[in-house]
Each structure stands twice: as structure tokens, then as C-alpha cells.
Amino acid sequence: MRRLLLPLPVLLAGFAQAAEPLAIDVYRDPSCGCCEAWIDHLQDNGFTVADHVVNDMTSVKMEHGIPHRLGSCHTAVIDGKFVEGHVPVADILKLREQPDLIGAAVPGMPIGSPGMEMGERKDAFKVIGVSKHGEERVLSEYPGD
């Protein structure tokens, strides 16, 4: 039997990707360019995206129980859980493994988060998980420059 040996960077390249294509619904405003860039981030990492362009994002956020203070420019739904803002793929995968959480959010629009890459600058940001009881906890922290 012949084995194919791949260089370490090739093996690690798919580490944060979904093992199989995962379906995710993304709701966004028609004029938002960073939302399209975040969708590219999802697709580049093995997600199948249903892109829903809507004019009333407030209703979408209210329907999915997203606390106002955790809001961002777009909202996604996977496995019945919300994903608010520029959440990295690795954290979406973590969210799926935590049955006590109803969603995860990256509040605001931090520069350097997925879909918000704008040059060399990176803002520090946190991914916040929200439980069924409304409790919040930090799932991940990303340092800035």
C-alpha cells in the first residue's frame, strides 16, 4: 500500500474547516460589503451558505433572540442557533458542540475579524456565547495589534 505524505502546512490548512459541508443561513442588509466578505470566509471553510438579503435586520435579530448589545451587521443561523456578526469558523464549530448555548456573537465590527480584514491593523475582540437562560460567557478571545 502506498501512502501519500502531505507537508504539515497542507495538513493544517483544513484544521478549522467543517469536516463536511455545513448549511448556514445568513441574513444581511443589501448594502453591506463586509457581510459578503464574511460569507466568503464561510464558503472558503467548507460551509454552504443560503444568502438572504433583507431590509429589516432588526426583526431578524429579534426573532432569534439576539441581545441588542451583542448586535452586529449580519445574522446567521445554524442548527437553530444564531451566529451574530463576524464570528470565526472555528467558533461556529465550537458553538455546534455546546447544547446549552443558543448562539454566539462578535459585537460590533472589529477590524481584523473574518470579513473585516482591512490591512495590517487588528482589533482585539471576543466571541460571546449566550445560554438558553440568557447568561453570557466568553468562548474565545482574539488579541489585537
UniProtKB/TrEMBL annotation:
Lineage top rank: taxon: Bacteria
UniProt cross-references to InterPro entries, sorted A to Z: DUF411, Thioredoxin-like_sf
Keyword presence, Signal: yes
Matches recorded under Pfam families: DUF411
Signal peptide range in chain numbering: 1-18
Transmembrane segments: none
Keywords assigned by UniProt, alphabetized: Signal
Protein name per UniProt: Metal-binding protein
Organism: Stutzerimonas stutzeri NF13
